[in-house]
Design a protein that fits this description.
- The chain is mostly helical.
- Helix 2 runs parallel beside helix 5 and helix 4 packs antiparallel against helix 5.
- It is built from 7 helices and no strands.
Length: 150
């Protein structure tokens, strides 16, 4: 068992780091000030930079990335099955290596989701940032506004 752990030390460190990041998100998501600071100073500037780059392409970059991710996952699973099948006597080790790689990728994608979008659920919302608060409206007011926009 120790030899298996040592042989895949890089993957184990990667997985541990990704899980620590996920645990930190879970522990600090209740801290609204920290989440708002992260949105303002980390994630929003990254999103703006990414938007400036992807704006240069005449096609939806994210959709191609999703398709590539799906095709890559299918290819990874097929290749994993073939490698495990072609490894007689070492099938358990091959399955462990491929499963560990997949687990690392899944946890890393979850980390990116929490950092890019999940933080926004725990930061200040539009009402707190703008000072505009929701108020009760009558059906007549709603009809008038809808009529104005149509």
């Amino acid at each position: 068992m120790k030899a298996l752990l040592r042989k895949h030390l890089g993957h184990h460190i990667w997985l541990a780091a990704a899980l620590v990041l996920l645990a930190l998100f879970g522990a600090f998501r209740g801290n609204r000030e920290l989440m708002t600071w992260l949105v303002d100073h980390v994630t929003q500037p990254c999103k703006q930079a990414l938007g400036a780059v992807t704006y240069l392409f005449p096609f939806p970059v994210a959709e191609f990335l999703y398709i590539g991710l799906g095709l890559g996952l299918c290819a990874y699973l097929v290749r994993s099955a073939l490698l495990i099948r072609r490894s007689p006597g070492r099938r358990r080790a091959a399955a462990y290596r491929r499963g560990l790689g997949l687990l690392c990728a899944v946890v890393t994608v979850l980390d990116w989701f929490c950092l890019a979008w999940g933080i926004n659920y725990y930061a200040d919302g539009f009402q707190e940032r703008s000072g505009i608060t929701a108020a009760e409206v009558t059906a007549a007011e709603l009809y008038r506004v809808a009529d104005y926009f149509t």
